[in-house]
Design a protein that fits this description.
- The chain is of the alpha/beta class and about 375 residues long.
- The chain folds into 2 domains: about 10-105 and about 110-240, 3-Layer(aba) Sandwich (Aspartate Aminotransferase, domain 2), CATH 3.40.640; about 245-369, Aspartate Aminotransferase, domain 1, CATH 3.90.1150.10.
- The protein has 12 helices and 14 strands.
- It has helices at about 10-15, 15-30, 35-50, 60-70, 85-95, 140-150, 200-210, 230-240, 245-260, 290-300, 330-340, 350-360; strands at about 55, 80, 100-105, 125-130, 150-155, 165, 170, 175-180, 195-200, 215, 220, 270, 285, 340.
- A 7-stranded mixed β-sheet has the order 1-9-8-5-4-2-3, with helices on both faces.
- Helix 2 runs antiparallel to helix 8 (about 230-240) and helix 3 (about 35-50) packs parallel to helix 8 (about 230-240).
- The longest helix is centred in the C-terminal third of the chain and has 18 residues, at about 245-260.
- The protein starts with 7 loop residues before the first helix and ends in a 7-residue tail after the last helix.
- The chain binds pyridoxal-5'-phosphate (PLP).
- Pyridoxal-5'-phosphate (PLP) binds near residues 60, 61 and 194.
- Pyridoxal-5'-phosphate binds near residues 89 and 182.
């Protein structure tokens, strides 16, 4: 039985008719950029998150770097971010010539809020809270630190569409919050898409203007901006999917309940579940000392797995110029050796998941490492 790490076709099939009807509707409308689908999606998504404004953008990376731009964070400024973040988080900072300051993760694989304060300097301008794998960062501590040191908070919710911290939705804590709708994300488009949400009208207006060549009115350009528009087709399809987001998230909870309850192999440790946070389970991450062997073993049964992420930003070629050698962030580096994301997708069958669980429970590492 071949099981992909992620199988987007399954989720598509659940509501195929509605996506196809919406796609035809947009195609036949004759209006493809900056129309009713986009403004309706922005209204519906900000209402879903519980924030005042949403501005659709072309990708999650654009949301990040444009957010820092709107906050006037650039050369000479420092932004605190977890060392095990996705590389886009770091690029969102460095595209603006600001410097990332890395903090190790806690046992939930999110930024260790207790380690933030010691990294604050007089150059620190913001904390980027990345809610990795679907679980929230400790937003109580992060917002408290930000308040005491007068720092901005940007949330990266690219993996946490609908996650709640103490009952409040992720994306409503920060000054600006960034979303990706890359196809694999909790709310995934059928191509690239992203957005920011904020309660601040000034930021929303700036970003809305910035994304369209710096113009509010056609051919009246107030500033040098970007082309980062969310097109009508993607916005329309996202509107269809948004109606099912809670149901998709609930299904992911049911899938992971099975993993949590039925994996009994002592060499496999599921990621710790953080109290006060719900989890939308963008990934189901386990830690295993024999990770590479486990991955190969599962592959021999045609079970797909992914490492999120095998090379951490500070060790990537892109950031060699930051000068971090091996051992700079030991927890982050150790995690990169041990983490593995198991198959999880909407529409996975019970039989498929049972097969994965059986194989996981039967795994015995050959070598004592
Ligand atoms: C996917 C992702 C991004 C980037 O989003 P794109 O739409 O691919 O540009 C940023 N941050 C995190 C945490 C992500 O998972």
């Amino acid at each position: 039985m071949k099981i992909l790490a992620n199988n987007l076709k399954r989720q598509y099939d659940l509501h195929a008719f509605e996506y196809e009807a919406k796609a035809l509707e947009v195609l036949r409308s004759g209006w493809y950029i900056m129309g009713n689908e986009l403004s309706s999606f922005e209204n519906e998504f900000s209402a879903y998150i519980g924030s005042e404004y949403c501005v659709g953008l072309a990708s999650g990376l654009d949301a990040l770097w444009i957010a820092f731009k709107a906050l006037h964070i650039g050369k000479g400024d420092e932004v605190i971010v977890c060392a095990n973040a996705y590389i886009a988080c770091v690029m969102g900072i460095t595209i603006n010539d600001a410097a990332p300051v890395f903090v190790e993760p806690d046992i939930y694989d999110n930024i260790d809020a207790d380690a933030i304060e010691s990294k604050i300097t007089h150059h620190t301008k913001a904390i980027l809270a990345v809610h990795l794998y679907g679980q929230s960062c400790d937003m109580t501590k992060i917002m408290d630190i930000a308040k005491r040191y007068n720092l901005k908070v940007v949330e990266d919710c690219a993996q946490s569409h609908g996650t709640k911290w103490n009952g409040k939705t992720c994306g409503t804590f920060g000054d600006i919050s960034c979303f990706s709708f890359y196809p694999t994300k909790g709310l995934g488009a059928f191509g690239d898409a992203g957005a920011i949400v904020t309660d601040n009208k000034e930021y929303a207006d700036y970003i809305r203007t910035y994304r369209n060549y710096g113009s509010e009115k056609h051919y009246h350009n107030k500033m040098v901006g970007a082309n980062s528009r969310l097109d009508e087709l993607q916005a329309g399809l996202l509107r269809v999917k948004l109606q099912y987001l809670d149901a998709f998230n609930d299904e992911r909870v049911r899938i992971t309940d099975r993993y949590n309850n039925e994996i009994h192999n002592p060499c496999i440790r599921p990621l710790a579940t953080r109290p006060c946070s719900t989890n939308t389970w963008h990934q189901y991450v386990i830690h295993c000392t024999y990770r590479d062997e486990l991955m190969e073993y599962l592959a021999s049964y045609e079970i797909g797995t992914i490492i999120h992420y095998p090379i951490q930003p500070h060790q990537s070629e892109a950031y060699a110029y930051l000068g971090y050698g091996e051992g700079s962030f030991p927890i982050t580096e150790k995690n990169a050796q041990q983490i593995l994301s198991l198959p999880i997708y909407n529409g996975i069958t019970e039989k498929e998941q049972s097969f994965v669980i059986d194989k996981l429970n039967a795994f015995q590492p050959k070598e004592i490492h």
